[in-house]
Specification:
This is IclR family transcriptional regulator. The protein is an alpha+beta fold. The protein has helices spanning about 20-35, 40-45, 50-65, 85-95, 95-110, 155-160, 165-170, 190-200, 240-245, 245-265, and strands at about 65-70, 75-80, 115-120, 125-130, 145-150, 205, 215-220, 230-235.
Length: about 280
């Protein structure tokens, strides 16, 4: 997360964000993403935030119940607490999209034999909102609440393909290079061309770019006003999906996405904030 501070950026209304809030969120996100507790020195190095500022932020998080420390000798090791889960749970209660989408995702799992997900776009990231796992299949790190760069998932590409060019340009700053064997440097013109192709065929694919051996196919769904509301798709072994055929899988995913869209357009589903 080094260099992720929002200084120098502006929000959608053209106003400058708060550097203090940006730094606090960067520290919190870094603690959540870390596999092990972190010292203040480690936090400062990873986030590129001054050590004294990291100390003030972690103490505040501790006072509010969002972080805890373990003292070993003269070192303090910081970790996040499950209070964050409580916040997420309150939000989830207000969103019934997950419940509504489950039958559509379940049909994809039963038909294709791969994990099925629903995602929404928040800033330049796709947030996994719902998941139906395929029985007997390796469980990927695609849990509800996970955030991924939009360009590294079929879910994100399916949504971005429906946005205006200037909106996509604003997302590019959050694009990332994957770890898979087919990952490649980000070229804006190439990204626009790929999204145009996605828009034309109706579904997006990602084949061993984010991670080796994994591929995904996704299609967008739309709200009552015709605006893109999110996407649904499947994630599985790359060889499995290629063997079935991206085109065949894409047709099934598109059909379920359209069916979910019709459910939304009936006006019975409350969408997550920010959509």
């Amino acid at each position: 997360m080094a260099g992720s501070n929002g200084e120098g950026r502006t929000s959608g209304d053209g106003k400058a964000p708060s550097p203090a809030v940006d730094r606090a969120l960067t520290v919190l996100e870094t603690l959540v993403a870390a596999e092990e507790p972190m010292t203040l020195t480690m936090l400062a190095q990873v986030t590129d935030i001054p050590l004294a500022t990291c100390a003030a932020i972690t103490r505040t998080l501790e006072l509010r119940g969002y972080a805890a420390r373990r003292v070993i000798g003269r070192s303090h090791f910081w970790r996040p607490t499950l209070r964050l889960n409580g916040l997420a749970a309150q939000l989830v209660k207000k969103v019934d999209l997950m419940r509504t989408a489950r039958p559509f995702l379940k049909r994809l799992v039963d038909s294709i034999g791969a994990h099925a997900h629903l995602g929404v776009l928040e800033g330049g990231e796709v947030i996994y909102v719902a998941k139906v796992a395929a029985p007997g299949m390796l469980q990927y790190d695609t849990y509800p609440g996970k955030a991924s760069p939009f360009n590294l998932t079929a879910l994100g590409r399916a949504i971005a393909a429906q946005l205006p060019v200037d909106a996509v340009d604003a997302l590019v700053k959050n694009a990332a290079v994957g770890r898979g064997p087919k990952a490649h440097p980000i070229q804006v013109a190439e990204l626009h061309a790929e999204l145009a192709a996605v828009r034309e065929r109706g579904y997006a694919t990602e084949d061993e770019e984010e991670d080796p051996g994994i591929a995904c196919v996704a299609a967008p769904f739309f709200d009552v006003d015709g605006a893109v509301a999110g996407s649904i798709g499947v994630t599985g072994y790359a060889e499995q999906l290629r063997s079935t055929g991206f085109e065949e899988i894409g047709a099934q995913v598109v059909a379920e996405a359209k069916a979910l869209g019709r459910e939304l357009q009936a006006g019975t589903v409350q969408l997550p904030y920010g959509m």
